[in-house]
Design a protein that fits this description.
48% strand; 127 residues; mainly beta; 4-stranded antiparallel β-sheet; 7-stranded mixed β-sheet
Length: 127
Amino acid sequence: QVQLVESGGGSVQPGGSQKLSCSASGGTPEWYAIGWFRRAPGKEREVVSCLSLSDGNTAYAEFVEGRFTTSRDDARITVYLEMNKLKPEDTAVYYCGLVRPTGPIEIVGDCRYVEVWGRGTPVTVSS
């Protein structure tokens, strides 16, 4: 059974950077995707990015505005979310999820069928 573990969260000042990792164990189907999601205090969970494990295609939410990059290692065991130019509104618990895609990853909404969730890692952006 696939398990996901996030790491790399912490506190950072506005304008700073943080790199999150999502490590998968139990074997991830190569045709699946990994989504990064976040839940800010008092808000619904939202998708941040979506990465296809088969071809590496990525999609991002509009609020990312080019500040975040998601990538994977060659073994498709670890997926990263590198966040730059962080804002206080990026404060949230960040989760990764194993997604069963229904087609090519073209938009961030393609990461909607999450089969396995990680437990999350908190990121606080504050001066």
